[in-house]
Amino acid sequence: MNGKTLYTPQHEHDSCGIGFVAHLKGKPSRDIIDDAITMLQNMEHRGGTGADENSGDGAGILIQIPHRFFKEECAKVGFKLPAANKYGVGMTFFPSESVLREKCRKELNKYIRNLGFKLLGYRIVPTEKNTVGQTALSVEPISEQFFVQFKDETTPEALERRLCVLRKYANRTIHELYTQTLDSFYVSTCSAKTIVYKGQLTTSQLKPYFTDLSDQRVVSALALVHSRFSTNTSPKWKLAQPFRYIAHNGEINTIQGNVNWMKSKATLLKNSLFTQEELELLLPICDSNRSDSSNLDNVVEVLTLSGRPMAHVMMMLIPEAWEGNGQMSQEKREFYEYHASMMEPWDGPASICFTDGKMVGATLDRNGLRPSRYLLTSDDKLVMSSEAGALPVDQSKVLFKGRLEPGKIFIADLEQGRIISDEELKNDICTRQPYGKWLQRSGLKIKNLPISKEKMLPPLTGHALEDRQLLFGYTTEDLKVLLGPMASEGKEPLGSMGADTPLAVLSQHSQHLSNYFKQSFAQVSNPPIDSIRERMVMSLFSSLGATRNILGETPGHCTKIKLAQPIISNQKLHRIKTIKHADFKCHTIHAVFYTDEREGGLENAIESICREAIFAVKEGFNLILISDRSAKEGMAPIPSLLACGAVHHCLIENKIRSRASIVIEGGDICETHHFATLLGYGAAAINPYMALETIEQLVRDRYFNKGVDAVEAEKNYVDAIGKGLLKVFSKMGISTLQSYQGAQIFEALGISTHVVEKCFKGTTTRIEGMSFDDLAREVLVRYDLVYKLRPTKEKNLPVGGVYQWKQRGEFHLFNPETIHLLQQACRKNDISVYREYAKKINDQSEQACTLRSMFLFKERASIPLSEVEPKANILKRFATGAMSFGSISYEAHSTLAIAMNRIKGRSNSGEGGEDEARFVKKENGDWERSAIKQIASGRFGVTINYLNNAIELQIKMAQGAKPGEGGQLPGHKVDDWIGRVRHSTPGVGLISPPPHHDIYSIEDLAQLIFDLKNANPKARVNVKLVSEAGVGTIAAGVAKAKADAVLISGADGGTGASPLSSLRHTGLPWELGLAEAHQTLVQSRLRGRMVLQTDGQIRTGRDLAIATLLGAEEWGVATAALVVEGCIMMRKCHTNTCPVGVATQNPELRKLFTGKADEVVNLFHFLADDLRRIMAQLGFKTVNEMVGQANALKVNENLNHWKLKNLNLKPIIEQVVPAKGDTHHNSSKQKPLDKDVLANRIREIAKPAIEKGKTVKAEFSILNIDRAVGTLVSSDIAQKHGSKGLAENSIDFKFKGSAGQSFGAFAAKGIRFELEGESNDYFGKGLSGATLVVYPDRKSKFVPHKNIIVGNVAFYGATSGDAYINGVAGERFCVRNSGVKVVVEGLGDHGCEYMTGGRAVILGATGRNFAAGMSGGIAYVFDPKDELSTNCNMELVEFESPNSEQEAEIKDLIEKHLEQTNSVLAKSLLKNWKSTIKAFKTVMPTDFKRAVEAKKSNQKKEELAHG
Amino acid sequence: MGKPTGFLEFGRELPASRDPKSRIEDSKEIQLEFEAEKLNKQAARCMDCGVPFCHKGCPLGNNIPEFNDAVYKENWGEAAKVLFSTNNFPEFTGRICPAPCEASCVLGINKPPVTIEQIEKEIAEKAFDLGLIQPNVPKNRTGKKVAVIGSGPAGLAAAAQLNSVGHTVNVYERDNRIGGLLTYGIPDFKLEKRVVERRITHMRQEGIVFKTNANIGDNVKTADILDQYDAVVVCTGSTVPRDMPVPGRELDGVHFAMDFLTQENRRVCGEKIKREDAIVATDKHVLVIGGGDTGSDCVGTSNRQKAKSVTQIELLEKPPLERGEKDPWPLWPVVLRTSSSHEEGCERKWALNTKVFHGKNGKVTCIELVEVEWTLTKNGKQKMVEVENSTKTIACDLALVAIGFLHPQRTGLLDQLGVELDNRGNILCEDYRTSVDKVFAAGDARRGQSLVVWAISEGREAARTIDEFLMGVSVLESKNRSLLRV
């Protein structure tokens, strides 16, 4: 790309289908390869294609070296191969351009020679390109294999090591020599054992392209396959997988940190198996230019070749969640703790298949966020893949079926000819060394450090304290809104509505440096985590001290000071500062700069502290303490973050980073985001001494109502920050502090490249901004107040005004004036008042607030207003924001809907479902139906009928105000009505999980889009994203996943409740995200098939015009519409006390609602009029003509505030020229769903049932590629019969085989599906009344209740119906179930998570974290071994013995289960009913119980009253 | 913050007043004490709005939700700190402010607003009672000298602010007591003079020098002032009253309201008024012309002087009881306001234009009025039309003209300073700087007649400008500007 736009390739993501087939006894055969390729092709739907349908994102296969084949083929070429395994094969991409190719070859030959090899010869790999797409062919390399023999006799392991050195050295040196070969020269594998065939291909092209793969002589005992779905669009052959050791399905979220840490770890490498020279040739191990998977492969490689078993390596890199796991054996925990001192987790969702050519295995991340299913047959075939049934096998031969469980490893040793269980394997590895003893000997706890005699500084009080607070930028708001609540409640404070204050770089208030950093978050390409409900996978563990050689292991390796969490008290800091210990030396660096050097002073100081740090570390200091305590008159504090980042990066540059830990003693550290940024840029422990002293002050001043003392207040504060940090990690899908440290999960907004290069290297910064001097100036404003300007004057802290509008505070777009004017304009329908309002919003010349305020329209030839397309065309393009019924009142919600229907725009249901009564038009023609139905992670009320009453289905991936987070509707907002609409219990709080549990990656999103298009083929599918760096590539991925529209929301969008730190510090304004998305879509030739929409603080016609010019053809307006309805920005939505009846469910307050649909209509008319006026001025006749014409904008150069002078906004308005035939706006439709044969057949056969009320029966065979079976026909039912569906069992179908994902998704009432075989993920998702039955193939011989039968996330968001599962289900069974009754014979981790209704009868073991966040419904668990209490998350539930009513219910359901599935287990349980029922536990959500009992007693009272 | 549901639980309540019959027997404050518990509930009604319109409505930009919260928490130290940080004299505004904050209180959209003014008064008094307010003598002096001319609310506020940052401040007052309008204009039953004196004492202790009977341009030379001071701020108020040029205006018994009120204030202070100069309402039929606050003060004062009858007339129509479309929330509503003085007995009439004062023996006996109607012109302006054949007369032997003030007095000081005036006759300023070097102006003299709260605001803002002028940069607060401004 041209580098002028916002697109940055580092943000590309991928995700995939993976698997392997192996012969357990190691017998090579053709079958293995053919089976693997068949499997790969059956996962085509997990891969992606770009604008060019025939260019895949990449596919590949790893096999053992087919010796006989090569021997014969090489002989044909004219050289002879030695015996098997005595030579290495280098599978290589060469540049297609011949001169360059020969240059590369010449170099390669030289290295082969120099490294002691003999070149045997080259073989050109035959390829057949006729099926391959144009895009891929345009960069197609030439594939050749080189064959080499080592000059001396050597062991196979040594040969492998040398081949690795050759490959790495050649790759790196040739890239350095000929930089243009970065993508075209590439040695895929260089090994004596394995070889990879891969390329920018679709799964079905792989075999035809490499004709070798069809050769009968090409045999292997194992084959690893991978198909790639990438959000990126610039083709790269080398990024296809598998790599040399692994095939990776997932995403390493912490890659930046991992790569940085490896830089310095690499310099410490020592290993007896490698010479030091060889180790140097291997460098760099990692490289930020490579993909995350490729980097991981490289680390796996070096750790494996240095002598560790692969399983050991996997345990080091992707450890289980060990910190809070009481069930884990001591040895294992010690193993993990020991290894934590040398390697931080490579954190993120990951399913990894790995092999060293002799054994093959797989592992899953700690959270189990990727599906992996396996089976073994009686003829020793082991099959593992992302989907069950991808390789059809004879079911009668299946010995067992399993799934990879979170954190578990599964290995088949082909030499030993057996499968080694996770337990055996890990037990073996964990007991190889006395890790526990080593830990005891070398590990230290901070509280055990001796206390030095040196006195600590006394705490500040009175004016001295106030002066320091002022110096470090405290405001009264910080005390009141942040510190106070944290110290009294132990939680982060909540807020509501969006942030409408200026970006830090535009603000004219002295900013905290952290404010320039926006947290990144997970959307689409990987899932965020629920840090509260899934606390068990999260960790704040941190340690201080040097890291040693990662290729070795000695007791000394774990010489570390361990911290349970990174926030340390003044006393603990003192112990570190004054440490006297043989293994630890602490050096304090004073982070201050001279105030007389107003120019250059700060940068000089940064340079000097860097020199000091380097010197100290080289001198052997392994604790570097950066302190701003010494700030005083003449010396201003350096922002802690700046000092930390600078030291961190200078140590990385000098490759000595891992030799010391950075500890911060900072006066400017107060809120969660401050801690997060410091940790993200390398700090390991933080002492926020000013915050702690301020809390003491609050205690002294009796700030807290309820007598909280200082100790408790400090503890609460630390707890609150800890929780906040976990939330920050989890929104990026990161589980552990260790891997978050230094991972730089931020985008800088408004920091100059110069500063970033020095202090935050690797951080995206796209609009430039503050220099060192500028940053100094912001500090000096505060410094001057304290020291320079009449120091004796008693000062008050500034008011802040960030969370609340204040006269002396920060600017807000919505302030008393603008709110008033907007309300008056719409009430009086007076456009002159609207203009006055718009002028106030638009004219930000005094105080810029938004990026768009910095743009001007260019002078262009105007046209008369009459030539501009009519207003009606424009009104259709408006949508309101997604605000749920629940977060806002019925009155506010339905008024918006009526208004939008009147103007033919679209209102959005939000995530709270919608009352079916609103689907019918009113007599006066008004319609309360929301045209857009949202599908959010909570799936509240998402039934088939809901989905069919929409013209647009919007998948909410993230919300501007709190991207990466879930939500919570507090119980007091759930009244009877809302409870009914959301299928939940009134009075019981509701949780929306942070991720959609059916979207952990891009291919999952493609699946949900597919499901929704089946659920309502007429509706358009829109994916809502939030602006962040990289959202463009995600939008491209969404386009490839065949969504029809994508919404780029600004991070400043509103909310009903969100932690304040999320409101302010996560995500970016829409200008950046929209422009990036538009630019990327145009460049990747996907723009025309998508509608691009934007929202977030859109207030006026000018905002609309700029959005349009930057690429949006539709716009959402939410807050402004609410203000017209009467909202006065109370920002109290989360307290249910909205005094104007908008965001409340209190019936008294709802009565005060005065909003009128007419007034809302007036707003949209004003906006459309305003836009038309600008269109005329700029000469655009239609919106389509105007979309993406960023050339019509220029940057306003007349804004003269000094902070703005270094900004560069040009990349935002860089106009990309579409390829010939492409458009800037939406001009075509996505390709319709494939003519899915099975779905259409079902539909045809079901017709009589739907149209004539007949009963239909039929049988079908089914494959894993048959996805969302039953959804399309359910749509037909809903369209015709609404929510009441059909009579029971009207459609009674039987399927045989392995069902694809989403079997029975949203299946309607009247359907009964019986599946003989098995099913993949999302079984019964959104079930809407149907009955699902599944049992194993009748021919199979395994015991059903010990084998897996349905995949992960079954019955997600299901609302009604029943199901009987004769086998074990995967992870997250019944997540967010709100009404389905189901019987199952065992399940994985996180079962019944967030469940709010229905019944789950579980006849076998549950995994860990059962019932987390479960607030309704009942689970009955058969628990004869009394294991449930250790596996259950007891936060919201309690155990009971079933009462008689419940016993009857359980028995009834088990009897049905037997009847439906013929379950052996059910039969035996019923037979011994008396003992069976004794072993049952009722898992009852506490709130639910209370609510149900209250209802019962109310009913009784009523009965008595009426009786 | 406070009590989130307070506004749903408690209604608006103000302290009771003394019985009108007995309170007109003296000039003491009329409000009774308010129980602490009740006050707490009133503070709990504050919703701590995301956009506190009250805070915008207050000319001083008082941080109202913050002090309400502190009162709710009974944290008087905090409450006083918040309140005094933006308002030098809440003990004045807590008593006599018409409370534009309450008019824009969000609760006022559909419920009676929070009793902000009352809370303000309680905080101020509590602060004095508990000793939270102590004279704050600056530790260092800048060596710069400032003359404040006029000791009304604007001058006092400017003086207090300038002194706080170490400037040496002398306040010049041409009268024999400090306080200007606070002392001479506002009757004691609204603002007891001990309250003003308490503040003056404080200010003296802080180092401010007050010079009374010092009429610059008259008994003090203007040039001397300009010579002796580094800066001069003119806060002389808008003292020239608007007159009504109707026949009979010269009759005895027709007086400007301020002359009447000032005399009474002097009397209450214990001064003697010469009999021949005395304007008293005792046993008279009093007619107050003008329906504003000054008029209302005349009503209260007349009743205390035992007038036979008191009638108040107003040119404009009788305002509605509730807000109309013209003044929707949060604008200042033109509604019928009934002051405590009105409660004490007074006949009020509207839409009457004064035509002639009739008299006997040079003394006024009655007034001739005509009814008027107000209509809107096409361009939205109000237009007055006299109603035909509606002339009437009202008997009166004391007529008090309370129809506002025009501008500051020009003769003397302003003429000698030579400051430019605006087209209304007020001192022309840019950011409180007059056209004359180192001369500044604030309050009604610059702004035209207005509220005490505005005068305080002007004094504060001017002080900031002066501080900046003297020192290059100011550390004083400004109501629209953060200290953290970069």
What does this structure look like?
The complex is a heterodimer of chains A (1507) and B (486). Chain A contains 46 helices and 54 strands. Chain A is an alpha/beta fold and 1507 residues long. A 10-stranded mixed sheet of chain A has the order 43-44-45-46-48-50-51-52-54-53, with helices on both faces. In chain A, strands 32-31-41-40-38-37-34-33 form an 8-stranded parallel sheet. A 7-stranded antiparallel sheet of chain A has the order 7-2-8-1-13-12-14, covered by helices on one side. In chain A, helix 11 (330-340) crosses helix 12, helix 15 (476-489) crosses helix 20 and helix 25 runs antiparallel to helix 26. The longest helix of chain A has 22 residues, at 156-177. In chain A, 66% of the residues are buried. Chain B is an alpha/beta fold and 486 residues long. Chain B has 3 domains: 6-129, Orthogonal Bundle (Fumarate Reductase Iron-sulfur Protein, Chain B, domain 2); 145-239 and 416-471, FAD/NAD(P)-binding domain (3-Layer(bba) Sandwich); 243-403, FAD/NAD(P)-binding domain. Chain B has helices at 6-9, 20-23, 36-44, 53-57, 64-72, 76-86, 90-96, 100-103, 116-129, 153-164, 181-185, 193-205, 222-228, 257-268, 293-304, 340-343, 413-417, 444-447, 452-471; strands spanning 145-149, 168-172, 209-211, 231-234, 240-241, 254-256, 285-289, 309-313, 347-349, 352-360, 363-376, 382-386, 392-395, 398-401, 405-407, 439-441. In chain B, helix 7 runs antiparallel to helix 9. The longest helix of chain B has 20 residues, at 452-471. The two termini of chain B are 30 Å apart. At the A-B interface, helix 24 and helix 25 of A face helix 4 and helix 6 of B.
